[in-house]
Amino acid sequence: MRLTIAVIALALAGPPVIAQEQPKRFPAVLAGHALIPADASVAPPGDAPADLAISGKFTGPGNTRADNVGTIEGTSFLSDKAAPRKTGYRMPIKGQSLQGFSGIKTVGDGTYWVLTDNGFGTKANSPDSMLMFHRVKPDWATGKVDVVSTTFLSDPDRKVPFRIANEATEKRYLTGADFDLEAIQPIGNEIWLGEEFGPYLIKADLSGKVLAVIETQVDGKPARSPDHYAVLTPAVPSGSATFNIRRSRGYEGMAAAKDGKMLYPLLEGPIWDAEKKDWEKVDGKEVLRVLEFSVAENKWTGRHWKYLLDVAGNNIGDFNMIDATTALVIERDNGEGTADKACPDGKPAPDCFNVPAKFKRIYKIEMTDANAGGLVRKIGYIDLMDIADPKGLARQGGVAGKLTFPFVTIEDVDVVGTAQIIVANDNNFPYSAGREPQKQDDNELILLDVAELLAAK
User: What is the pLDDT of residue 346?
Assistant: First the structure.
């Protein structure tokens, strides 16, 4: 439910009690819409292993191998409450899929850094999906996007502390079996990446060579998911494994201070409290940690903030700073599709949306010294399910002067100038169909006029 005025009882060692006011909704107007086709791909580097010439070979049932191109049907099944729906594409594919932008950063010259997600969703099905980031340039006039450059991640100096999929090769290109990259921040001549499996921070140079892999600490203790290399499966059914971050709830967004001195990785899910045997909560509601990492000192500062989800079960999509103390955060539900294409009575069917999108927002938040250790302040938001399009700029999805962005995963937002932001989806190729029930989503980038939101105090 929406957070109304609430008094948050914090621990005695924490900051003073702060009243949380209901954030105000602000308008969003479409200023540009550009697309990358769903099946866009790039060729692997010439020195990559032959295995990487075809990707998606392990996306079938049980992750069993399928070497022949186009033998595995793509289906949308991202929600456990939805019926599988055909997306119209098949795996494996020749080359490497460009799909799934999971992070974005404005360069300032009309280009943007974007980050391809881990591949096809899991470690098990992505050992032939290369990790890469790109520099792209949308042409808002034509609706096309130029991929200016692609950089592949590699570990020739063996900085990764565990065995990787391409361990025995010279260049040691990284894949989705190694990491799940979700956030990108260029600082000087280095690229910092927020990762979800560990979760880890990864530092690389501009050529994509890994310089360091940094373990996460929360309150001075390790924070690990079941996909962390040190978390082992127990030998017997009665055994247990020790971890405190749920699978696929590591870093989903990571902001950087405007001066580049600090990184602010944001966990997608709450931390498990072993003593209370419950997820971390404030006033009975789950909160997500925003951590602080010093780039210059190469260490966690110990400071943090807490992000309160509006609705239980919501997720974070991306996180970027506006200025020294305010930032943009995507908060969204796990639905996809619009209500006009909803299944009758909500019953799952392969040609409709039985879990349509309802909550797709971008919040402006405030993080200050005064609220460190406590809740970030939600100042206001825009609704991505209700974008005004008075000029008819929408290239798809526009109806009666409105555009909706009804994707299950919206994972990219950053500021463009003083009045605009850019937003993009992770299209989860070939598993996401949010525009039409049986049509794979494209990679969509939208430019929004949101002057009132950015100016809000």
Answer: 81
